[in-house]
Amino acid sequence: MQLALYSEQGTDVETYKPRINRKSVYCLCVQDHYEKLEDAWEDRYQQRLGYCRSFVKDVIYKYLECGDLHFGFARA
Asked: 49 in a domain, yes or no?
């Protein structure tokens, strides 16, 4: 999907190109490995770093939902 943005004179300024979060390398890494980290946290990291805060899981899943129109959108 591309939307052309126009100035007041009607000339083409730029084209909006939505980002595809699910195809980014970072998103794929989080998607593939977060559950493994969550499973290993208590044994490998908790003694040194403390327990995993409950909001971390919420933030991770909200990040993975970002860019998916099934979860809504904001108009600015």
From this structure: yes
Higher pLDDT among residues 64 and 12, named by residue: 64
Asked if the structure places residue 68 within a domain, the reply is: yes
Q: State how many domains the chain has.
A: 1
Residue 9 token pair: 């004179």
Closest CA to 57 of 29, 34, 27: 34
**Is-contact 22 68, C-beta < 8 A?**
yes
Which structural domain, as residue segments, surrounds residue 63?
Answer: 23-76
Per 3-state DSSP, the chain is made up of helix, strand and coil in percentages (nearest 5) of 55, 10, 35
- The average pLDDT across 7-16 equals 62
- Which residue, 4, 6, 26, is CA-closest to 15? 4
Per the confidence metrics, is the pTM higher than 0.90?
Answer: no
43 within some domain: yes
For 10, which DSSP code? S
